Amino acid sequence: MGLEAWFMEENDEDKRLPHHRNPKEFVPLSYLAELGVLYWQLNPKDYENDEELRQIRESRGYNYMDLLDLCPERVENYEEKLRNFYREHIHADEEIRYCLEGSGYFDVRDKDDRWVRIWIKEGDMIILPAGIYHRFTLDTGNYVKLMRLFIGEPVWTAYNRPQEDHPSRKEYTSSLFGKNAGVALEAH
């Protein structure tokens, strides 16, 4: 089926709803690639033996992996965790998430500071570049099982907006608006 993404209508309704604009404005993968967001569609039923996943991990240096089951029954302080995930922030490193079960939304800011909602579902793997403003929430299914990948030891530090002087944010905005903007990316 492939990844779905769209420009969001900003309002105070339940964050787990799709928040489509009227009319709906879908965003192609090429637009996400311009923002530095990488995407793969993989086989979540056999992730332990997936050759493509192994190649991605090897080529990008992802040597640490863990799994996160995010739902009210399995996470202590569930509501607080979701509020923290939904707070707009950046990271100093890439954020790599592979959806093994369920679904949820990653929202990223585009060049014009508009929210783009990315609906990840089973089999979707995305990489958000270091320095991109983003947030996460579940959809109305209230469940997602994610694989989290890192280079080296995991770093969970989120830097809440504003972070315009953070080195990763400066590097990210330079890549967006500088000479490297629009360079083709390796993902499909």
- Could you tell me the CATH topology label: Jelly Rolls
CATH architecture: Sandwich
Oligomer kind:
single chain
Helix content: 10-25%
Radius of gyration: 16 Å
Look at the structure and give the mean pLDDT: 92
CATH superfamily placement: Jelly Rolls
Number of helices: 4
Distance between the termini: 14 Å
* Elements, N to C (H/E): EHEHEHEEEEEEEH
> Largest sheet at a glance?
8 strands, antiparallel
Which class do the helix and strand fractions yield? alpha+beta
How many domains, in number, for the residues? 1
Count of β-strands = 10
Would you write up a description of this structure?
This protein is an alpha+beta fold and 188 residues long. The two termini are 14 Å apart. The chain has helices at 29-34, 51-60, 78-86, 167-177, and strands spanning 4-7, 38-41, 64-70, 89-90, 95-109, 115-121, 124-128, 134-138, 144-150, 159-160. The strands form 2 sheets. Strands 1, 2, 3, 5, 6, 7, 8 and 9 form an 8-stranded antiparallel β-sheet that branches. The protein has a two-stranded antiparallel sheet with strand order 4-10. A hairpin with a 5-residue loop joins β5 and β6 (115-121). The longest helix has 11 residues, at 167-177. It is built from 4 helices and 10 strands; from the N terminus they run βαβαβαβββββββα. Mean pLDDT is 92; it is low at 180-188. It has one domain (4-171): Jelly Rolls. Helices cover 19% and strands 31% of the residues. The relative contact order is 0.24. It is a peripheral membrane protein. Its EC number is 1.13.11.54, 1.13.11.53. Ni(2+) binds at residues 89, 91, 95, 134. Its cofactor is Fe(2+); Ni(2+). This is Acireductone dioxygenase.
